[in-house]
Amino acid sequence: MKRLILCGGGHSHLEVLRVMREARRADAPSLAGVELVLVDPESQALYSGMLPGHIAGHYAHDEVHIDLDRLVAAAGGGRVPWRATGLDPTGRNILLENGTRLEFDLLSLDIGSALDSSVEILPGARALRVRPIGEFVRAWPGLLGQAASGGLRRLLVVGAGAAGVELLLAMHHALRSAVPGQEVALSLACETEAILPGYPARVRVHMQRALRAASAYVHSASRVLRVEPGGARTAAGAFIEADAVILATGAAGPPAFDAPGLARDERGFFLIDERLRSMSHDRIYAAGDCASFAGEQVPKSGVYAVRQGPPLARNLRAAIEGRQLSARYQPQARALSLISSGDRSAVATRGGISIAGPWAWRWKDWIDRRFMARYRV
């Protein structure tokens, strides 16, 4: 019997599980001798595209989570509830955090990325990383409770990309709704001169307006070096006071995952080809934020991870059946970006065209709910 291990319940692997589920329903004979194993400590997968809406209070827990146990069971497999900490590419086995090893015939990695570790967190500092997302979501109600009791007066978000700006505005909406009468001063530390580097000027103007409406102060050209008790210290020596700091900095290679000999790029991401196969080991695949394409920079975004799911599913099934890999992933030249602004409003941009308003939120909501419906069991 061949064993296919899906390591991580990321967006790309959701599509692999869906395809396997449909194949099982059709009684595909080629899958009769395949053991499907999902390795992930989380029983539910949170869709990152709906995270800001969930933090803002627009979506309940069940609306933004996929039940991995039910999905993998419908695909004819099972979940191993441990985190993978290492990989022996030559011996074809993965090491779990409980010390056991699982052998595989085919392995696919979709374990996400870590936060840029350039920000040091000193003992006694109140800092919360947005990755892993599950830990961040579980910690957020505690911050709301502290705000309600008066223990949280100043909140700083480090990182002025789309994730940082969206989260700050989502938290503002939640604090205003859930903690009436308690004023929490919000601020954003931006390493560059302006927020949302790489986005069209019209998008920045719209989101700057939203930040002003939230009375959020933007610390421009302020690269945070470390989080200390009471706030954060910048490279210029300035101290930004904060009762709690949210770290939403850039992506780095997968954390605490030892894989000697497996091809990686200079930042530690798994290096893959256009068929989503490892550049060094043809029985190993990778997708989503943990992967990097040789000679091409693909943004670490759920928009791209979702599009990698179908070709990954087709190539894994072809490999299982001993057929030639035929599906190639071609990154979108102009991906649609939808950035929410806390309330039920958003800005949509594709290429150089940007339009903002409540209709953009409704569009985003429709896209997100349609995505979630595909993986409900």
Molecular structure report:
The mean pLDDT is 92. The two termini are 26 Å apart. Helix 1 (11-25) packs across helix 8. The radius of gyration is 21 Å and the shape is globular. It is built from nine helices and 26 strands. The strands form eight sheets. The protein has a five-stranded parallel β-sheet with strand order 5-2-1-9-22, with helices on one face. It has helices at residues 11-25, 51-56, 61-64, 68-74, 133-148, 162-178, 201-213, 302-320, 358-373; strands at 2-7, 34-39, 44-46, 65-67, 78-80, 84-88, 93-96, 101-103, 106-109, 114-115, 120-121, 127-129, 154-158, 185-189, 217-219, 224-228, 231-234, 239-241, 244-247, 251-252, 270-272, 284-286, 291-293, 337-340, 346-350, 353-357. It is α/β, with parallel strands linked by helices and 377 residues long. It folds into two domains: 2-113 and 253-335, FAD/NAD(P)-binding domain, CATH 3.50.50.60; 115-251, FAD/NAD(P)-binding domain.
* Mean pLDDT metric: 92
Number of helices: 9
CATH homologous superfamily annotation of the largest domain: FAD/NAD(P)-binding domain
Q: Can you summarize the main beta sheet?
A: 5 strands, parallel
User: In percent, how much strand structure appears in the residues?
Assistant: 25-35%
When the domains are counted, the total is 2
CATH class of the largest domain: Alpha Beta
Derived from helix and strand composition plus strand pairing, the structural class reads alpha/beta
Q: How many DSSP E strands?
A: 26
Give the N-to-C terminal Cα separation. 26 Å
* CATH topology category name of the largest domain: FAD/NAD(P)-binding domain
Q: Which overall shape is indicated by the principal axes computed on the Cα atoms?
A: globular
Biggest sheet, spatial arrangement of strands = 5-2-1-9-22
